[in-house]
């Protein structure tokens, strides 16, 4: 009786998130998955569903052509690799820039920390789109930087700062840096500083103590921050669309084009499914690594 | 009070002062500690004992003064270059390392050979009797086990000086007593000079060879546990160490080493043997330990110095001893403790009985400050 009660209560607690996940993730994903195995057609909707409802019930006719296209046309592979490269690079850069910032904030006087963290989050108060647009204004050939450099006599011709590899990476790092700093700050701030005294007491110099104590203890923050930057950066659409060029094709942009320019829903869905797999693998690896760490 | 440091002492703290934002945490302390001593810094919280310990470790810099360890001036030497190790109150075990890695951490900093490290770590774990836990992470240890790991980690480098910050503070009562004896055993075995900070007088008394009592950043008394208990030099020390009855009064005379004090509180003349002469009329206090007062139904023979009559108000049975609280006609209360072995053999006292209290002239301690 009581066991039945408690399991019912457990289900009660789990039900709302399960319902949420089912409604807003599993069902849409199942739809996308279905369309990924459909054949493109002219009509509304613009595909032939692999699920056919006939007299003998439901029959399945999956079509693998979309994935074949992904495999054969090097455009998709390049877009995937570009996305991984851009996102990976942005993650590393965010870590290199964000770690010292998070560290400095976590070690600042306690009365300062809240203010400093507010400053980190402050850019979010402005729309991301507007912030990306303003980067265009800063980077374009007659933009702020080039005007300053030319006026100061350092260069004669404007530097190509926009619509290239540099501007996309800059935009990603700028846009996602707070997502790296937040989890890093949290782990660094709660760290017991007596541990560093203990390390020093045992003959460990400050730099070594950082490498042996602080860095390993902040690993959960590093992993969380990296995922928070990497995952959305892979699928990023606005930044490569506005700051990028033909050479900086990313998978989010490809998806957009397939869907809205080519109206090829099945291929767009196949791209989305492939992208999801691309993201689930690193997350799974990270989690496996974290669990292993905990078990020692 | 601050003894002039002997030049030969192993650890010399010379006129050390520490200010935090203009506040004196440690005020001009000088102290000499010999090699192999088990020395306790004892005092209430906020007395500066932990600050002094942290200056010995190198985590704080003295605002003035010098710290010399084994002849070398350590005042400005950073912690990682001092031949000193510390056992932290919170233990400060590295959570991402196993017990063996924690204990071996200090040796790895010295770049020792792996085999040597393994052997030394093994010896240390044996010494503190936790060899079976070598592969565990600190999160899976009990408080007592963590304490042992912390001790092993601090001892493994064979420091010249081991600092212990409230080493038993986080342990429960039973484990605490057991660990006290164990710390003394280990200290004898390794022969390292221990400086322990504690606010618990029992802890200091039972472990230390010498104790420094601190109050508000100053040293109040330095001595063996016996000296500090039997001959406290101030009201503060007498009151801080153990239970005490304190009577205030005025000196009335001094004759062949015997000082007489008139104390209206007790209603009797208090005689104190073997004291230096004190001018008559001086305001003083007399401290008498509860176990040095005897309890009787009848008045003691002879003159009635050091004897008062009162009413027994409370009897608290504490197992090995009982505490009696006797109210005097003046309203003051005197505390008397008797061993229960004696009490059960003698006449039993009852509450609200009229009793006589008396103590010998050697029992009282004259306190002028």
Largest interface: A-B, 19 and 26 residues
The strands making up the biggest β-sheet of chain A line up spatially as 1-2
- Mean pLDDT over all positions of chain A: 89
Structural class label of chain A: mainly alpha
Order of helices and strands of chain A: HEEEEHHHHHHHHHHHH
User: Which band does the percent of strand residues of chain A land in?
Assistant: under 5%
Question: Would you kindly provide a brief summary of this structure?
Answer:
The complex is a heterodimer of chains A (296) and B (369). With 296 residues, chain A is mainly alpha-helical.
List keywords for this structure.
heterodimer, A: 296 residues, mainly alpha, two-stranded antiparallel sheet, 13 helices, B: 369 residues, six-stranded mixed β-sheet, five-stranded antiparallel β-sheet, disordered N terminus
Give the SSE layout:
The complex is a heterodimer of chains A (about 300) and B (about 375).
Chain A: H1 2-36, E1 39-40, E2 47-48, E3 51-54, E4 57-60, H2 65-72, H3 74-107, H4 110-121, H5 128-139, H6 144-151, H7 165-189, H8 194-201, H9 206-217, H10 219-234, H11 238-243, H12 251-261, H13 265-295
Antiparallel strand pairs in A: 1-2, 3-4
Helix pairs in contact in A: 1-13, 2-13, 3-7, 3-10, 7-10, 8-9, 10-13, 12-13
Chain B: E1 11-20, E2 23-33, E3 38-42, H1 49-57, E4 64-69, E5 72-73, E6 84-87, H2 99-109, H3 114-127, H4 143-155, E7 161-165, H5 173-190, E8 193-198, H6 201-207, E9 210-215, E10 218-223, H7 225-230, H8 235-240, E11 245-255, E12 258-263, E13 268-272, E14 283-288, E15 294-296, E16 307-317, E17 321-327, E18 333-339, H9 340-345, E19 354-358, E20 365-367
């Amino acid at each position: 009786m009581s066991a039945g009660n408690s399991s019912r209560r457990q289900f009660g607690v789990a039900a709302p998130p399960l319902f949420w996940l089912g409604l807003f993730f599993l069902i849409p994903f199942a739809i996308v998955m279905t369309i990924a195995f459909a054949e493109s057609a002219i009509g509304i909707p613009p595909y032939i569903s692999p699920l056919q409802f006939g007299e003998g019930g439901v029959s399945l006719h999956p079509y693998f052509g979309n994935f074949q296209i992904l495999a054969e046309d090097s455009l998709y592979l390049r877009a995937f690799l570009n996305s991984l490269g851009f996102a990976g690079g942005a993650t590393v850069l965010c870590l290199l820039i964000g770690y010292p910032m998070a560290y400095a904030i976590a070690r600042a006087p306690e009365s300062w920390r809240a203010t400093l963290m507010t400053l980190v989050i402050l850019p979010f108060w402005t729309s991301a789109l507007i912030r990306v647009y303003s980067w265009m204004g800063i980077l374009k050939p007659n933009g702020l930087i080039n005007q300053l450099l030319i006026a100061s006599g350092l260069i004669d011709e404007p530097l190509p700062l926009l619509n290239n590899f540099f501007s996309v990476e800059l935009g990603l790092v700028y846009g996602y840096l707070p997502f790296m700093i937040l989890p890093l700050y949290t782990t660094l701030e709660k760290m017991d500083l007596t541990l560093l005294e203990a390390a020093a007491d045992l003959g460990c110099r400050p730099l070594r103590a950082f490498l042996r104590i602080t860095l390993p203890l902040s690993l959960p923050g590093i992993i969380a921050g990296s995922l928070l930057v990497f995952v959305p950066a892979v699928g990023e659409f606005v930044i490569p669309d506005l700051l990028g060029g033909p050479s900086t094709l990313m998978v989010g942009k490809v998806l957009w084009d397939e869907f809205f320019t080519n109206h090829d829903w099945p291929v767009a869905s196949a791209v989305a499914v492939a992208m999801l797999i691309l993201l689930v693998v690193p997350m799974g690896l990270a989690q496996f690594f974290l669990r292993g760490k905990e078990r020692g | 009070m601050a003894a002039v440091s002997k030049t030969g002492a192993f650890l010399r703290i010379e006129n050390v002062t520490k200010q935090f934002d203009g506040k004196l945490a440690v005020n001009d302390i000088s102290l000499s500690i010999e090699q192999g001593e088990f020395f306790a810094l004892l005092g209430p919280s906020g007395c500066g004992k932990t600050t002094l310990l942290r200056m010995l470790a190198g985590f704080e810099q003295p605002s003035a003064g010098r710290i010399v360890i084994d002849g070398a001036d350590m005042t400005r030497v950073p912690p990682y270059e001092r031949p000193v190790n510390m056992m932290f109150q919170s233990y400060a075990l590295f959570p991402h390392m196993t017990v063996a890695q924690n204990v071996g951490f200090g040796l790895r900093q010295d770049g020792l050979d792996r085999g040597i490290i393994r052997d030394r770590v093994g010896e240390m774990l044996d010494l503190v009797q936790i060899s079976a836990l070598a592969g565990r992470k600190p999160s899976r240890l009990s408080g007592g086990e963590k304490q042992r790991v912390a001790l092993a980690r601090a001892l493994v480098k064979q420091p010249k000086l081991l600092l212990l910050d409230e080493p038993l503070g986080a342990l429960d009562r039973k484990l605490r007593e057991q660990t006290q004896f164990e710390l003394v055993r280990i200290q004898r075995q390794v022969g390292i000079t221990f400086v322990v900070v504690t606010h618990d007088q029992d802890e200091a008394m039972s472990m230390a060879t010498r104790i420094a009592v601190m109050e508000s950043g100053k040293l109040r008394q330095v001595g063996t546990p016996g000296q500090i208990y039997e001959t406290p030099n101030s009201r503060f020390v007498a009151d801080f160490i153990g239970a005490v009855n304190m009577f205030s009064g005025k000196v009335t005379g001094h004759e062949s080493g015997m000082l007489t004090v008139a104390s209206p509180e007790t209603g009797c003349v208090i005689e104190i043997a073997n004291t230096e002469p004190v001018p008559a009329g001086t305001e003083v206090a007399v401290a008498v330990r509860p176990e040095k007062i005897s309890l009787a139904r009848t008045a003691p023979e002879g003159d009635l110095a050091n004897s008062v009559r009162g009413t027994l108000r409370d009897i608290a049975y504490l197992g090995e001893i009982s505490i009696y609280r006797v109210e005097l006609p003046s309203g003051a209360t005197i505390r008397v403790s008797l061993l229960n072995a004696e009490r059960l053999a003698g006449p039993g006292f009852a509450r609200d009985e009229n009793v006589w209290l008396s103590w010998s002239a050697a029992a009282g301690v004259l306190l002028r400050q």
